[in-house]
Protein 1
Amino acid sequence: QVQLVESGGGLVQAGGSLRLTCAASGRTFSSITMGWFRQAPGKEREFVGGIRWTGGSVDYADSAKGRFTISRDNAKNTVYLQMNSLKPEDTAVYYCAGRLGPRVGKWVYDYDYWGQGTQVTVSS
């Protein structure tokens, strides 16, 4: 069993930055591949990025490349999503997710564990 809790969301103006944090408990964090997803009203939950359990490989959606950075600190059982140059279209509920496997998945069904989500709102 894995519990995931996101934090760090909020309201920012376009061009601003936020750092989201996902804290994991209940299982050895280093064995879990972590992903970030987001979901805006009326839209599918979409992949943002993910980091392998080794921490050495990070995958990003095209919308995130060059602006977002994912990292993890296994000693703290924590994964981060640093978001810079935020745009109004980044507004969504952001979720962290975990899976037991070495590869980052890009689909919701690839993941076994989910956090409750944290709201990110970017004003223009």
Protein 2
Amino acid sequence: QVHLVESGGGLVQAGGSLRLSCVSSRSITVYTMGWYRQAPGKQRELVATIRSAGTNYADSVKGRFTISRDNGKNTVYLQMNSLNPEDTAVYYCNLDQGILGNFWGKGTLVTVSS
């Protein structure tokens, strides 16, 4: 089993920044990696994904968030700038194995105050 561990969440004021990290227990080189988030009472939604072909972002975070990866460290990052209260959620790291399924981290809480 692969284990994904997120870190970097916390409390930040509107307009501030946070950088989330996700460390995998296995190599991530060949996999699409992503960040998802879920707010109370809402469905889990895609935030961003990254693979060799490029990146993909939800419209709500384009221009504010940047996903990146360091395959040598088995780590994916999410730089979050210009945060607003609507970004408050638990953020989950994802490793996509295609037909073999997905692995998820336990999540890290991001709270943005107004």
Protein 3
Amino acid sequence: QVQLVESGGGLVQPGGSLTLSCEASGGLLDWYAVAWFRRIPGKEREGVACISKVDDPTYYADPVKGRFAGSRDSAKNTVYLQMNNLMPEDPGVYYCVAVNTRDMERLCTHPGRRSGDYWGQGTQVNVTS
């Protein structure tokens, strides 16, 4: 069973940056696409960035394009979400999810729970002045 642990959340001011980490154990994260979902208070869960398990482009949701960047470090069995220029609209709980799919756009636009997916516990991101 794959276990995912997110870290790196915290409190930043608008315009600040955070790097979220998603470290896997019990399985190779390279075997999965990895989605970063978030739940912003008052809103439904939404996709943020979906990182392909093959050499295909990462899909980014429109609100984070140009600001967030996903990446993998296979040697560490870890994926990252570099978040720059954080905005007051970005706070919430961020989750990483390992998914056996190759359709990144669909994954990020349908951020529901599915059988066979592996979810982390989430990490809190706060953006406040």
